[in-house]
Amino acid sequence: MKHKDGKPFPPNKNLWKVQVGLMVVVLCGLSFYLGGIFCSEKGSFVTKEVNREEETPRGNSAGSLQTKASSFPECSADYQDYTPCTDPRRWKKYGLHRLTFMERHCPPNFERKECLVPPPDGYKVPIRWPKSKNECWYRNVPYDWINKQKSNQHWLVKEGEKFIFPGGGTMFPNGVGKYVDLMEDLIPEMKDGTIRTAIDTGCGVASWGGDLLDRGILTVSLAPRDNHEAQVQFALERGIPAVLGIISTQRLPFPSNSFDMAHCSRCLIPWTEFGGVYLLEVHRILRPGGFWVLSGPPVNYENRWRGWNTTIEEQRSDYEKLQDLLTSMCFKLFNKKDDIAVWQKLSANSCYRKLDNPDSYPPKCDDGTEPDSAWYTPLRPCVVVPNPGAKKLKLNALAKWPERLHIAPERVSDVRGGSAGAFKHDDSKWKVRAKHYKKLLPAIGTDKIRNVMDMNTLYGGFAAALAEDPLWVMNVVSSYAANTLSVVYDRGLIGAFHDWCEAFSTYPRTYDLLHLDNLFTAESHRCEMKYVLLEMDRILRPNGYAIIRESSYFTDIVATMAKGMRWSCRQEDTEYAVRND
């Protein structure tokens, strides 16, 4: 467990003296960490606190935890918002075409930082959920530019020491609530549990995704790293799911046919350019029967064109091009009113069979690239056709939320060794584990923990076991592991592909709890543990935790690294162990 205690935070220079907790348990060759490093031997139970000092105090015996630690210095203050793979300092090395410089470009090994990313001066413990949805501390996300540029659109307002989020936006000046109300009128499936997962491209400060949380819809808010706006950082500070990303030249890190709904509110993505590859990517990740919602140009051009610095003829042409492109890739116009237009991805095989015509554009994708391949995979100007044999892939074939959470998805059988029985076993196992975690870490289920990441999930069992708690979980599946992320989405949860040899696409200090289950066992032959742990330290908030289940082989390494990062440690048993006092 990584835990930075809840004492008042001193100025930046001394903030790293706040303790971080980590635990490890070893039982029958298996161990786990819960907010610190826990070690137990077969016949005994040993607890060890890793102190803030650089070396283990003399006379303190802790078995294998007596390892001299390497001390990691604090990064300079200009790295307080360091995002290694989307670092503006390195943008000049990459091209401007299609904004490729904003995509992931991780530094080579010799440029990797081995320091602890500091918080900004005056950083405070984040405001707790649900209050955080409407306000955050200015000093935690000290960006004045977005406040000045977007104040007339009511994205956020600075009041004293806080930013206030009134729920405004470019396309919803009357508030996001009324905007979503209209959307629900156009899409009744938003109100009955049919639609559960959504993605918002160009999310602003994630007010749309925040409003949908109250309506039972879990949204991944997506925006690129920039020098001024810090949209994703604002979203996560508010307790709303978000990741750094941009639709440019590579696929988004999500499996095909996963989201129930996609949304763009004047996100200014040129949907019809470059062969329609951006819209084709939305088509790939949207499940059959899912909805694509667009507000802003060119929708409602008849009444809005004067404010868009264009002509009505240009906007009419843009709308017709968009409609033609959507029709060609098997979308139909579902509903439209005022500034909102809704298209639905067709599930009928008859439409996709038309793509077999060699003269059709865009063409059907060949078998050269897997539909779910989505880690540094180039975008292709072709249609990813849903598997016609998948009967329960369609939106209307899934059980409604929350029933779908515990029903074995059809795609579990696509996983090697996967089956409905294996899914049920995993689901039951994580209910037991989550119950045990709550005993060890009572903060789970309270307002102290809001943003959670399962760093190497299988089927999303950990997230499912916590579904009733006031938190959300980003489920991460290794890009080198079997693709189980589609199963995660089919049960109504969210997540992303990632390679833990690299930094995650998020800002520092954005998660309250990280969970690992044999991550080092699976990845240590590829990824240096030191950098994985430093990345965990970067993305965890002060006052955060890490739960790590791992084999005892890695105990010494984790203990050493944890000590060098000022994490404190304690030991606990697994859910099946009996503690020997």
Automatic annotation (TrEMBL):
Entry-linked Gene3D superfamilies: Vaccinia Virus protein VP39
Pfam families membership: Methyltransf_29
Enzyme Commission number(s) from the entry: 2.1.1.-
GO MF term (any one): methyltransferase activity
GO cellular component, one term: membrane
Enzyme class at the top of the EC tree: transferase
Coarse class of the protein's main subcellular location: membrane
Superkingdom of the organism of origin: Eukaryota
Record's keyword annotation contains Lyase: no
UniProt subcellular location: Endomembrane system; Membrane
InterPro entries cross-referenced by the UniProt entry: Put_SAM_MeTrfase (IPR004159), SAM-dependent_MTases_sf (IPR029063)
Keywords, alphabetical: Glycoprotein, Membrane, Methyltransferase, Signal-anchor, Transferase, Transmembrane, Transmembrane helix
TM region(s), chain numbering: 20-38
Keyword Oxidoreductase attached: no
Topological relation to the membrane, as annotated: Single-pass type II membrane protein
GO BP annotations, alphabetical order: methylation
Family: Belongs to the methyltransferase superfamily.
Protein name (database record): Methyltransferase
